[in-house]
Amino acid sequence: MRIGVVVHGPNIIDSGYALDLIELLRTYGEVSARLGGTMGRTAVIDANLEEVIDISRKLVPSDSLKLFYDEQVDVIFLLNYGKSDVTGQVFGYKVYNHFINKIPKNDIPLIQIERPGERDGSVIAWNNDLEIVQELSQKLNLDIVTPDEVYDNHIRQDDAGINQRIVHGVSPGENIMVNSVVIG
User: What mean pLDDT is predicted for residues 46-52?
Assistant: First the structure.
C-alpha cells in the first residue's frame, strides 16, 4: 500500500508522535511524508527529520494533500496536534473541505490522527471507514470521531443554508481570525 502522510504543525513533531506514527504506518506499506503548512518547518529541522518529512515546498495542508492525491497514493493521513480536541477537529474539517474542492473525485481515503497520546485524541476517517481506522484506534488508544460528529458539534447551518462555525477553544487574549483577518 502506498501511504501519503501530511504532517501539520510543530506540536506533532516536537512531541515525537510524527515520527512514531510514520514508523507505525510503515508497517502497513510504503510511506511518503511532507509538511503541510509552515509552522512545522523549524521543528522538522530541529528534530533532524528532513530525510523523513519533505519540507522542500511551502504548501498549505490541503495542497499537500492534493499532491498525494495527484500521485494516486492508496490512503492519505493528516497528522495534527491541536491545542485541544475541538481546535484539531475543526482544523481537520476545514482542511478536508478545502481539499475536496481541489480534486475532481473524492476517491482516496483521508484519515486524520489528532492529538495522539492525549485522552481526547482521535482518529477521523473523513471520507472512508477503512479497517485500518479501527486498528489504529486500538493501537493508539484513540477514540474514533466521525465527520458527522465534528459537523454536528462545531458547524451549524442557518435557515438560509449558510454554514456557520461556532467559536470553540479560544483562550482569553487570543486572536480570532476569519479568512486570515483578525476579527476579535
Answer: 97
